[in-house]
Amino acid sequence: MTQQEINIEVLRYNPEKDSEPSYETFQVPFSHETSVLQGLQFIKDQLDGSLTFRWSCRMEICGSCGMMINGVPHLTCSAFLRDYYPGKLRIEPLSHLPIERDLAVDQTDFLQKLESIQPYIIPKETRSLEDGPFKQTPAQRERFYQFSECINCLLCYAACPQYGLDSGFLGPAAMALLHRYNSDSRDAGQAERMPIVNAQEGVWGCTLVGYCSEVCPKGVDPASAVNRNKVSSTLDYFFRFMAPRGASE
Amino acid sequence: MAARRPYVRPMAGWWRRNPFYIFYMLRESTAVFVALYALQLLYGLYMLSIGEAAFDTWLASLQHPLYLVFHTVALAAALLHAFTWFNVAPKAMPVLYLGTRRVADRTIVWVQFLFFFVISAAMIGLALGG
Amino acid sequence: MQVVQTDIVIVGGGGAGLRAAIAAAECDPKLRISLISKVVPMRSHTVAAEGGSAGVVQSCDSLDSHFHDTVAGGDWLCEQPVVDYFIASCTREMVQLEHWGCPWSRQEDGSINVRNFGGMTTARTWFAADKTGFHILHTLFQTSMKYPSIQRFDEFFCLDLIVDDGRCQGIVAIEIATGEFFRFEAHVVIFATGGAGRIYPCNTNAGISTGDGMGIALRHGVALRDMEFVQYHPTALAGSGLLITEGCRGEGGFLYNKDGYRYLQDYGLGPVDPSPRPKAMELGPRDKLSQAFWHEDRLGRTLDTPLGSVVHLDLRHLGRIRLHERLPMICEMAETFLGIDPAEAPIPVRPAVHYTMGGICTDGNTATSLPGFFAVGECSSVGIHGANRLGSNSLAEIVVFGKVAGEQAAQAARTSRGIDTRAVAHHAESSMEAALALFEHDSDQRIVDLRKAMQAAMEEGVGIYRTEEGMSATCRILDELVETNRRVHLDDKNRVFNTEWLTAIELGFTLDVARTMAYSAIQRKESRGAHQRLDRYEQRDDTNFLKHSLAYAVADAPPRIEYQEVVITKLPPAERVYGGQAKSQLQGE
Fold first, then answer.
1. Per-residue pLDDT for A41 more than 70?
2. Do A169 and A219 fall into the same domain?
3. Do the Cβ atoms of C242 and C204 come closer than 8 Å?
């Protein structure tokens, strides 16, 4: 196997020592199948054990290893060093999220948002386990399935300037998951979730930049979830406006 | 004792960082030209309401080279505006189904373009024929 | 040190831990439940399970058949009463997941769809495309947010159990983001910490599967059971070990050697059917398939690649439409990691370490020998997998026994004898000091060198086939590594988000667990399931070894191995048969 070398420039930030982040460059050998993640692991194993980043499954499903590669949000396990050679790579933590240390960002804001959307089935009918599974045709499943494929990797938050400008905005992934439950034939929680959608920081914080869908590694298309909810938010507002107070359920 | 000190990066100049954002800003800025053009049309309507002479003066003023440049830029902006919104339209509308098959995003975009060209051609035909 | 007082501590936020948390919360909403995980729960390794989860659902199927498949698949080293309970509970738990929103794949009429899996008599594997673990994990994680009594401590690294007065009274953890120590005082602790596949160089596991829970339990005198049984999944990518689901073969994929020959027919798995009958050929059990690869490789009938020898998994005949419907993630992975389209080209695969059948020894109620301490999921050995686990039984296991663990813990928390706060604080201090001592070492011994030496030794000596000579060499190397590890060097002397420090602590656990595998293996002088020997002990020996191994820690010495009888109630030991014979055996029953 031929081994070549590539320069990886990494954003470093140690909250115990640094007042602000700075870049550090490492030279990393690679072969055809070396992922960017493996490049970082080489640095940590062999050159500087203090380089800090998250990773786990190595196969694009756990959502841990998202970073900015040359300014573009990407999972580092499925980006390959060969594709950047002979140029160099600049690796930074995901944009718009606070940096804990080096390439690890603070994810707590997203987790709170996820919790706020009631991301679970609010059932239409009480059904005991003895009654068996709900019936759900492949067509009914199709209506929400794409949105259930979100791996919570936060690339879409790193892609969304509106979130960067105002972290109060619910953001793409949380909205996609909200839409996932609202679109599920087993769920009846739409009315409960509507105030979140209608809020200034709900769908109306989105200006349809559309980059979130561009960078999504799973084809979830969060921009469509957000913007479809603009339609439902408008209708919801309209009907509440039209209906006499207290007349709606 | 060690503690967290998360670093928040500044957002200044964010839209210059990525070609995608630059194009987004361009798309948004086209709205300015579309709005200016609309204002200008309104002004024409206002002149029409005053009388034929006023309207003719307004029409004549449109022949000014600066106006021609403005119109060219406004047309380009309006076209870009329309095309970019055609492209994102599938994201903003409820999912369409034909029977049980979902209508592809691509199809929705093409149908809009089809309507756009057909209606534009009809309008131009009407204008030239009339 | 910060203190958290709680009723139940659950360590591990994968499927088993989340299911346990929900069960405990449903049992008694007043219980304070602390869910501790070294990664945010949706990053847990359950996420990577692909093919599906077992549960008898077809009218042509029966619980007895699933029972038979599981016990025979485990080469009779299963606790039959526990298997009985497990089989009877699987379907109910699958329905529970469905009610919570799991997007199971469906038939046209809206009912659940099932697929074939290796070693199973009929189709009983529920699946959500080929992302079943991902969907189960996210369903459980999101559903857990419904219960206010579950308090999550995300990215807290469990360092130690606190044991006093002969019972478990809490844990010590490090908050990763700050490097601060936390003492959790609890009436009950459940470990759901996952497997230890990272002990081997080529494995399908996530970086977090380092056997932490097993290592901690071992140090407190709890036995690790059946550790010599390590599952090699027959179809993983060469080099990286990334998993290519058994669902590929469940859907009808073929395995070819370099001559384009379906070689499994040479290993008692024939006849060759145009689409394999259950329990035959490509639908054989994992141990047999991985062993067949080993033989093909020795005979020079595998293909050479820069990343090692491979065979071909051919899915082309399934057609693009079916592939994209049933196996979308496999298509994506083949494209991303290999640059091939499975509809056009076969996928090069080889066996890689996948699962630890053994683990923390528990009874059928997930209770360990240490009062107040429970274990569930891959870190545990509740007794259902025996010497070889069948695919799709482990996702079912985490929910079936996760529920049991949560309920048992809720009950135990109510009857607890209280916590001795002073003693607990004292134990926690000493765990903290041990962890901080790692910063004081002065050597040039890098973590990566120790890890690689361990992995190479395990693959060499305790791989698919084993010999006395190879295993004793591995034992010697591991003993040395445990010594060297006491002086391992850290570049990073900071406390905030110090992942190098945590990796060093993990390596300590991993090495201890590796030793239990090697020492259990060398003393099992027979071949059974995933433990296959080439040195005079090629046969199963029920007279001497129809027994579980129990590995106990011994201070400053290798583990001590003892044995425990296997409880056999319904199905007496018989020959394991697959291929054409399996059918006739079933008909003969």
1. yes
2. yes
3. yes
- In a 3-state reduction of DSSP, which class is residue C168? strand
The H or E element containing residue C292 is: helix C286-298
Confidence class for position B3, pLDDT limits 50, 70, 90: confident
Checking if the pLDDT of B2 tops 60, the result is no
Angle of CA points A116, A121, A214, to nearest 5°: 65
Cβ–Cβ pairs < 8 A, chains A and B: 72
- Strand-pairing partners, residue A92, are A68
Distance (Å, whole) CA C382 – CA C362: 5
Cis peptide before A86 (omega within 30 of 0): yes
pTM reported for the whole predicted model = 0.96
Instruction: Tell me the per-residue pLDDT of C447-483, one tens digit each, with 9 for 90 and over.
Output: 999 999 999 999 999 999 999 999 999 999 999 999 9
Indicate the domain borders of chain B.
14-89, 93-130
Q: What's the average model confidence in pLDDT over C138-158?
A: 98
Distance separating alpha carbons of residues C193 and C218, to the nearest angstrom: 13
CATH number for the domain that contains residue A206:
1.10.1060.10
The answer to whether the Cβ–Cβ distance between A227 and B94 falls below 8 Å is no
Q: How far apart are CA A158 and CA A176, in angstroms?
A: 15
Interchain contact B11–C (C-beta under 8 A): no
Which pLDDT band, with edges at 50, 70 and 90, does C3 fall under? very high
Partner residue opposite A49 with nearest CB, options C45, C110, C500? C500
pLDDT over 60 (residue C554): yes
Residue A226 structure tokens: 């957000």
C177–B4 C-beta distance less than 8 A? yes
pLDDT digits (tens, 9 = 90+) for C200-252: 999 999 999 999 999 999 999 999 999 999 999 999 999 899 999 999 999 99
B1, B8, B9: which to substitute to probe chain A, counting the most A Cβ within 10 Å? Answer: B9
Helix (H) or strand (E) holding C79: none
Amino acid identity, position A191 = A
A-chain CB neighbours of B2 within 8 Å are 16
Asked whether the beta carbons of residue B4 and residue C180 sit closer than 8 angstroms, the reply is: no
Interchain CB distance below 8 Å, C179 and B4: no
| Rounded distance between C-alpha atoms, residue C198 and residue C209, angstroms | 6
The predicted model gives B83-87 an average pLDDT of 87
State which residues form the domain around A138: 108-242
Spatial distance between the Cα atoms of C273 and A90, rounded to a whole number of angstroms: 53
Specify the pLDDT at position C580.
Answer: 86
The yes-or-no verdict on residue C126 having pLDDT over 50 is yes
Nearest Cα of chain A lies from the Cα of B58 at a distance, in angstroms, of: 37
- The yes-or-no verdict on residue B15 having pLDDT over 90 is yes
Structural domains in chain C plus CATH codes: 2-231+355-425 (3.50.50.60), 233-351 (3.90.700.10), 428-565 (1.20.58.100)
Write out the catalytic residue numbers of C.
Answer: 233, 249
Residue that finishes a domain, picked among A83, A105, A127 = A105
Chain B residues 50-69 with CB within 8 Å of chain C:
none
Same domain, A231 and A121: yes
Q: Tell me what pLDDT residue A247 has.
A: 45
Q: Which residues of A touch C443 (CB under 8 A)?
A: none
- DSSP reduced 3-state for C176: coil
Last residue of a domain, one of A62, A87, A105: A105
Domain covering B14-89 assigned CATH 3.20.20.140 in the classification: no
- A162 and A97 within one domain: no
ipTM for the assembly: 0.96
Closest residue in B to C497 (Cα–Cα): B4
Task: Looking at the complex, report in whole angstroms how far the Cα of residue A206 sits from the nearest Cα belonging to chain C.
Answer: 24
Q: Rounded distance, CA A44 to CA A29, Å?
A: 13
Which residues 101-140 of A are in CB contact (within 8 Å) with C?
A: 101-102, 104, 106-108, 111, 114-115, 118-121, 123, 127, 129, 132-138, 140
